[in-house]
Specification:
211 residues; alpha+beta; seven-stranded antiparallel sheet; 7 strands; globular; binds flavin mononucleotide
Length: 211
């Protein structure tokens, strides 16, 4: 009897450990266009939320939010958010408790970049424990550098504004909280993600259910 109980306990522990493990990639679902509110209602509901929790976001909502940010919406490869001169220099990284993922917009997939909990380098307070934190990172080799060392090109700050608002609206549509935020650690981000110094964080955004 004792042996059976120990076996069950070991299996449960193994299952819990496996459930924590970050998958190598997360194939996102095609966006759903016929659920939720009207655009005008989503604009009415858009706000910056507080009190984020770790409650899991269903895959369809997660897929919609990511697609709304920077997904492909036309056969020629252009995206839901515009970029000056169509440079498409903004990369999206999503930080979860289990790992950090890069959004491959061509395959609509989140690809694991680094296993582990690095949410603390994305921002302060509840950014550190929210279900997901997004960083919008500009590839300055596509735009030229900013005015000061460490800054992205001005056009990237404009471009990310569109991305962030799309996230706000997709979250409002799904009844999920969101907050644009500063407070990331640029140096730790490039080190953690093994990015070149030419990749500059422009903005962070917390996404998750709230208390
Ligand atoms: C560029 C930008 C940076 C922001 N940075 C932070 C931040 O670091 N921390 C925070 O709590 N909220 C941040 N916010 C959210 C603002 O505080 C929020 O948008 C503002 O209070 C207006 O509230 P609303 O979004 O609900 O209209 C930021 C918003 C923007 C657009």
């Amino acid at each position: 009897m004792k042996k059976v109980l120990l076996t069950i306990l070991a299996a449960a522990l193994c299952f819990a450990a496996c459930a924590q493990k970050a998958p190598k990639s997360i194939k996102l679902l095609e966006p759903s266009f016929d659920e939720g509110m009207t655009l005008m209602q989503a604009l009415k509901e858009r706000k910056s939320s507080s009190g984020f929790t770790e409650k899991e976001i269903p895959l369809q909502d997660l897929s919609n939010i990511i697609w709304a940010s920077l997904g492909v919406n036309r056969p020629d490869g252009r995206r839901t958010s515009p970029t000056g001169s169509n440079r498409q220099e903004i990369e999206l990284y999503a930080f979860f408790r289990t790992g950090v993922y890069w959004y491959n917009y061509k395959t609509h997939t989140l690809e694991l970049v680094k296993e582990g909990d690095y949410r603390s380098i994305t921002g302060r307070k509840d950014a550190q424990t929210a279900y997901m934190n997004l960083l919008f990172i500009a590839d300055t080799t596509k735009t030229g550098p900013g005015n000061k060392p460490g800054d992205a090109n001005t056009v990237s700050y404009v471009n990310v504004g569109y991305v962030s608002q799309n996230v706000y609206l997709a979250c409002a549509n799904a009844g999920i909280g969101s907050r644009a935020r500063g407070g990331w650690d640029q140096q730790k981000v490039v080190e953690t993600l093994s990015l070149p110094e030419t990749m500059i964080v422009v903005l962070g955004q917390t996404v998750g259910y709230c208390e």
